[in-house]
Specification:
CATH superfamily of one domain: Glucose Permease (Domain IIA)
Mean pLDDT: 81
Low-confidence stretches: 1-10, 17-21, 457-462
Strand content: 25-35%
Radius of gyration: 57 Å
CATH topology of one domain: Glucose Permease (Domain IIA)
CATH architecture of one domain: Distorted Sandwich
CATH class of one domain: Mainly Beta
Length: 588
């Protein structure tokens, strides 16, 4: 039974193996068949595509040849047609010449025959020839008229078109019963009416009885149109008021009045400008406001005498304002209290930042004339060029370390600028050109990038701090008495005090119980403090390396003997310095 089972299993395994090989063989045959079919189809498509392209190429060549042949034939036909037309035109042009030549030969022949027949025949022939010449001349004139008549009509048409082209439709204006001119549209009348109203400054002016304009359509040339200014003169003339020819004075388009003597007012204005001239080269002096004279007709009520006009032109619209300095005043406080921009206050008082004492008068605003004068002058001056700072990174130094390798030097340039002064105060400066006289020299510095003191160890064996004094001994430790926040290192006056670790000086001053003291920030919320110094060797912002001289031992502030009060602060907490520098001087 066991043998039979083993035999059946082996036969089944053989059948499975044979079935697997048959299946793989059939798949290979199918794949080869499909590949062969695909190749045949692609080969057929390629052949058909090649044939189609060749056929298209042949057809293109045939079409191009036909078009070329058609163009040649068409060109030849056009050429022959134009040649025939040119020949016919030539014949038509030469026909009168041939006729004249034929007539001349005919006349010569007739005269020769008549000469042989006697004087009577000659007279008859001459009369006949004269008549024929008259007839020929008449025919020639008719022909010329046939050509000249269309040309003359064209000329007449052009002249007529040009004449009417220069004409245009306009409105004829009737005002207070008078025709006062032609305008292109009603807006011109409105502008003229505004100009007229602007010339009236007193209530004595009487409105005309009929102030409503009437318009009618008219065809006029451009030269006949009336401008708004000229129409304003006509309106005033037709108003029925007493009028005069005068010069109106306008300041920023505001009418101040009309003057009979424009020259006298012009002299006054020139005098105001002359007061601001300094005689500098290329100096330009002018009024800030636009001032112009407008000649025209003005109601007699608008005529202002010279003295009244001069009073207006030389008047002031605002007076000078000053402020008397009181105790506790500062430039910025004065600007805030007086509601004046600080830049304007400094411009009016250039030395206010250097000199400001109680009782001093500070100019808040200048007197402002009715006619401000602008003076523009071209100035040439020297100006410093700031130097750049080139920074080199030193990864061996901690962040905050800075060392100047070479100091920078400022350059110098010559500046040409247009400077604008209004009533003597500079208001604008426009640089026209610059010329470098001396190039600046860049400053070279080295900065550290290493992380600052990463941590503060709690044992002296691996501390990052060093003993801060050249010698000395601990006279009082932290909490040695109530409120004592550091370690006192006693030694003689003037003994050097050195930075316990690298960092940036954040305090260097004399104040309170600490007296003269220094605080160094080492990063990561770690600071050290050195108090009761007799003198300092650093200032705020300095970067110091570990061991650098920063101060000298003393007894300033609340101290009873010469010593250095040394503190270590971490995150604002007072730590025991002995944990970081030990209890005794280790020596140098």
């Amino acid at each position: 039974m066991a043998r039979h089972t083993e035999k059946g299993a082996s036969e089944e395994k053989a059948r499975d193996s044979m079935g697997g090989s048959i299946t793989a063989s059939s798949w290979n045959n199918q794949w080869n068949h499909l590949s062969d079919q695909a190749y045949r189809r692609l080969h057929y498509l390629g052949i058909q595509l090649t044939r189609s392209l060749r056929k298209l190429k042949r057809r293109s060549y045939k079409l191009a040849a036909r078009l070329r042949l058609h163009a040649i034939v068409k060109g030849q036909k056009l050429g022959s047609t134009w040649a025939r037309r040119a020949k016919l035109t030539k014949e038509e042009m030469l026909l009168p010449v041939r006729r004249v030549r034929h007539a001349v030969s005919d006349v010569s022949f007739k005269l020769s025959i008549a000469k042989q027949q006697g004087r009577a025949a000659q007279a008859k022939a001459a009369a006949q020839i004269t008549w024929e010449c008259v007839q020929a001349l008449g025919r020639l004139c008719c022909s010329l008229l046939n050509y000249a008549a269309p040309a003359a009509a064209a000329v007449v048409l052009v002249v007529t078109v040009n004449h009417f082209r220069d004409m245009q439709f306009a409105l004829s204006v009737e005002y207070n019963g008078e025709d006062i001119g032609y305008i292109s549209d009603e807006s011109v009348f409105e502008d003229a009416e505004k100009i007229m109203q602007g010339r009236i400054i007193y209530e004595d002016y009487e409105e005309p009885l009929d102030a409503v304009p009437r318009y009618s359509l008219a065809v006029v040339s451009d030269e006949e149109l009336t401008s708004a200014s000229a129409l304003a003169n006509e309106l005033i003339s037709a108003s029925g008021n007493e009028i005069m020819e005068a010069s109106g004075l306008y300041v920023d388009d505001t009418f101040l009045g009309a003057a009979l003597d424009e020259g006298k007012l012009q002299l006054l204005l020139d005098g105001i400008l002359d007061e601001h001239r300094t005689g500098a080269e290329d100096e330009r002096v002018e009024f800030v406001k636009d001032i112009r004279f407008q000649e025209g007709l003005y109601p007699i009520t608008s005529i202002v005498d010279y003295n009244s006009m001069a009073d207006v032109l030389t008047s002031e619209v605002a007076g000078e304002v000053v402020y008397t300095v009181k105790a506790g005043d500062a430039p910025t406080l004065i600007a805030q209290e007086q509601d004046v921009p600080y830049s304007e206050l400094k411009q009016l008082n250039p030395n206010i930042e250097e000199e400001l004492f109680v009782g001093q008068e500070v100019l808040i605003s200048r007197s402002e004339p009715f006619l401000k004068v602008k003076r523009v002058v071209t100035e040439v001056y020297d100006e410093e060029i700031p130097f750049t700072v080139n920074e080199t990174v030193d990864t061996s130094q901690v962040r905050g370390y800075t060392k100047v390798v070479s100091y920078g030097q400022k350059g110098l340039k010559e500046v040409t600028a247009d400077v604008v002064y209004i009533d003597g105060t500079e208001t604008e400066r426009t640089v026209l050109s610059t010329t470098v006289l001396k190039e600046p020299v860049a400053q070279e510095i080295v900065t550290g990038t290493a992380a600052p003191l990463a941590n503060v160890p709690n044992s002296n064996s691996n501390s990052s701090f060093m003993w801060p004094v050249d010698g000395g001994y601990v006279s009082c430790g932290i909490n040695g008495y109530w409120g004592h926040t550091g370690m006192d290192i006693a030694t003689s006056r003037g003994t050097p005090i050195r930075a316990a670790a690298s960092g940036t000086v954040v305090i260097a001053k004399q104040q309170g119980a600490y007296g003269i003291h220094v605080m160094i920030d080492h990063g990561n919320n770690v600071q050290t403090l050195y108090a009761h110094c007799s003198g300092l060797n650093v200032k705020v912002g300095d970067y110091v390396n570990q061991g650098d001289l920063i101060a000298y031992v003393g007894m300033t502030g609340r101290a009873t003997g010469n010593h250095c009060h040394f503190e270590v602060r971490i995150n604002g907490r007072y730590m025991d310095p002995a944990m970081y520098v030990g209890n005794r001087y280790p020596g140098r």
